[in-house]
């Protein structure tokens, strides 16, 4: 009340709701095999600042853009867990990310993945484990962002999330990654391939220094679980950086986590089965692998003159002077380190060389004036900082500069954020990693189809055979956001029921160089099953006909519209050019 006793008028502040605000917060998540990170930017700023979360629970005092990708569940209550750099009461679950794609093949020289047995012992689905970790990481990141800006403003902002995935990830694994993020409360979310994100950030940072339109670059994203290769040509530098992908990416499960496994195998060979059985249960052993990880993995340069010391405190190992093991210290000589490193380095060299050769052949076929020139190979990711990897690649590609860019460890997560700032950089075209198509029953041709099963069709009164129709081809240039239509046809009896308007169709893929004419085990596989729901479509739009058997039928024609996104395909159902009905993609 005022001094006269009258009620003062209330001032109502109408804050814009989230969906009314034009301000947007872009949050990028790099969910890695060994380390994970988060970065963000406010897209409404004239020159958005890409900011990494640098402090994490359990790592207080250590400013770093990533946190270990590990989780440890309470034995009595699986809803409680410690994660990342926290102190863990028991053995952690490492490699959470690999649980989403346990069938991804690894090299023969590495021990078999324990992902499936880890899941069985946990008693939780892989998607839930990933969701727990991603959710914990995101909640912490939001608390840190809140300490930088007013909480009311943060609540008002629209939020757009983008999560990076390996280029070699299967579409099924990508779908599981999306499910995990949504279960963690992160939505709306899009995916981007890790090397694409790294390329955008790295080249965007150098566009004023050394780049020219027409330059080609190879990005080698050497992470903990995977090594991905991707190549781009610069199509524009102003008013923003624009890139086009040159050839299909290559990659494999040859990340630096494999070096840790090979180190542990080397320790086993050094001390013998009996000692190793007891050693691996000790604190000394638990400290040895991180010591190798931190002090040897990136520092080793490949010289036989180098040597490093790994300590197994209180392990009571027998001295073995011949093999440089004394007083629980193993003196790793340069030749010992090379035996650990070389199988993985050899594989990475092969992947890089294949990518460089593909780029050269592609540009020569196009008559490009710089066809034989690859400007640089960029090494990013945690293992991208390896001096030995750089030296080996430089020896193999003497005419190409090998660059380990500044901030390479956080290049992926910052590139993920950058991908949602189209005013700064964009990828205008990409290449298909595999063939995509559908199988359909076609009229039997005695000349060409005699070795294949024929089926009599009553409505048409003819023999038919199942053949493939490919709509996207491996290595095909695809414009970003390009939409491709896959036509489907079904014939229904005139007395059909509403449930008959639910159709299941398979999207087929092939990794072969040349796609096969017929579906065949080994050369084709199911990418996903598409459930099309046309119950809401006006029946008058269906075409009536009389079959060869004299019965009445309805012909139902519709299309699957596939739109190319940075790491996924968006599916929609169209009927006579209009998006209607609904569609679900089942990858299980």
Secondary structure: elements and pairs:
Elements: E1 24-30, E2 35-42, E3 51-52, E4 67-68, E5 71-73, E6 81-83, H1 115-122, H2 126-146, H3 151-156, E7 158-165, H4 171-183, E8 189-193, H5 194-206, E9 216-222, E10 227-236, E11 241-245, E12 250-252, H6 257-271, H7 273-279, H8 283-295, E13 307-311, E14 325-326, E15 329-333, H9 334-365, E16 376-380, H10 387-396, E17 401-403, H11 411-418, E18 425-431, E19 435-443, E20 454-457, E21 462-472, E22 477-479, E23 483-493, E24 502-510, E25 525-533, E26 543-546, E27 552-564, E28 569-575, E29 578-579, E30 582-586
Parallel strand pairs: 1-7, 7-8, 9-16, 11-18, 16-17
Antiparallel strand pairs: 1-2, 2-3, 2-4, 5-6, 9-10, 10-11, 10-12, 13-15, 14-15, 18-22, 19-21, 19-24, 20-21, 23-27, 24-25, 25-30, 26-27, 27-28, 28-29
Summary, kept brief:
The protein has 588 residues and is of the alpha+beta class. The chain has eleven helices and 30 strands.
């Amino acid at each position: 009340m005022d001094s006269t006793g009258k009620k003062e008028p209330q001032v109502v502040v109408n804050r814009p709701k989230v969906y009314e605000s034009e301000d947007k917060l872009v949050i990028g998540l790099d969910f890695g095999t060994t380390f994970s990170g988060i970065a963000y930017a406010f897209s409404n700023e004239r020159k958005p600042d890409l900011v990494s979360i640098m402090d994490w629970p359990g790592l207080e005092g250590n400013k770093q853009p990533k946190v270990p990708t590990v989780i440890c569940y309470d034995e009595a209550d699986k809803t409680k867990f410690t994660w990342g750099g926290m102190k863990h009461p028991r053995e952690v679950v490492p490699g959470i990310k690999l649980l989403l794609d346990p069938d991804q093949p690894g090299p023969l020289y590495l021990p078999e993945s324990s992902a499936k047995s880890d899941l069985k012992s946990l008693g939780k689905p892989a998607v839930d484990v990933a969701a727990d970790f991603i959710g914990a990481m995101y909640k912490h990141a939001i608390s840190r962002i809140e300490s930088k800006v007013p909480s009311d403003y943060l609540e008002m902002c629209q939020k757009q999330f983008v999560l990076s995935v390996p280029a070699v990830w299967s579409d099924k694994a990508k779908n599981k990654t999306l499910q995990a993020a949504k279960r963690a409360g992160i939505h709306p979310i899009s995916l981007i391939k890790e090397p694409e994100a790294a390329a955008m950030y790295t080249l965007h940072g150098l566009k004023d220094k050394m780049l020219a339109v027409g330059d080609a670059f190879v990005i080698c994203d050497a992470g903990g679980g995977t090594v991905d290769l991707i190549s781009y040509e610069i199509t524009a530098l102003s008013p923003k950086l624009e890139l086009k992908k040159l050839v299909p990416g290559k990659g494999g499960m040859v990340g630096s986590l494999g070096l840790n496994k090979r180190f542990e195998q080397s320790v086993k060979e050094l001390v013998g089965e009996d000692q190793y059985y007891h050693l691996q249960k000790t604190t000394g052993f638990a400290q040895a692998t991180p010591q190798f990880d931190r002090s040897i993995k990136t520092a080793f340069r490949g010289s036989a003159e180098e040597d490093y010391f790994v300590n197994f405190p209180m392990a009571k190992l027998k001295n073995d002077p011949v093999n440089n093991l004394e007083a629980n210290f193993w003196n790793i000589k340069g030749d010992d380190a090379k035996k650990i490193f070389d199988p993985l380095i050899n594989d990475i060299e092969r992947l890089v060389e294949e990518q460089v050769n593909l780029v050269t052949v592609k540009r020569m076929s196009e008559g490009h004036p710089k066809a034989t020139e690859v400007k640089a190979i960029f090494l990013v990711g945690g293992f991208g900082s390896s001096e030995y990897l750089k030296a080996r690649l430089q020896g193999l590609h003497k005419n190409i500069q090998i660059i380990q860019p500044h901030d390479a460890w956080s290049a992926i997560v910052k590139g993920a954020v950058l991908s949602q700032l189209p005013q700064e950089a964009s990828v205008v075209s990409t290449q298909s990693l595999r063939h995509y198509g559908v199988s359909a029953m076609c009229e039997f041709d005695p000349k060409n189809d005699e070795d294949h099963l024929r089926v009599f069709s009553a409505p048409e009164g003819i023999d038919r055979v199942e053949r493939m129709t490919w709509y996207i081809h491996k290595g095909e240039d695809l414009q970003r956001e390009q939409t491709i239509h896959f036509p489907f046809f079904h014939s229904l009896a005139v007395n059909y029921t509403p449930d008959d308007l639910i159709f299941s169709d398979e999207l087929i893929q092939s990794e072969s160089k040349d796609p096969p004419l017929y579906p065949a085990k080994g050369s084709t596989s199911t990418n996903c099953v598409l459930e099309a729901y046309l119950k809401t479509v006006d029946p008058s739009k269906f075409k009536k006909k009389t079959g060869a058997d004299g019965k009445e039928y309805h012909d139902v024609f519709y299309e699957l519209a596939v739109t190319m996104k940075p790491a996924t395909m968006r599916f929609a159902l169209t009927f006579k050019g209009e998006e209607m009905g609904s569609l679900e993609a089942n990858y299980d």
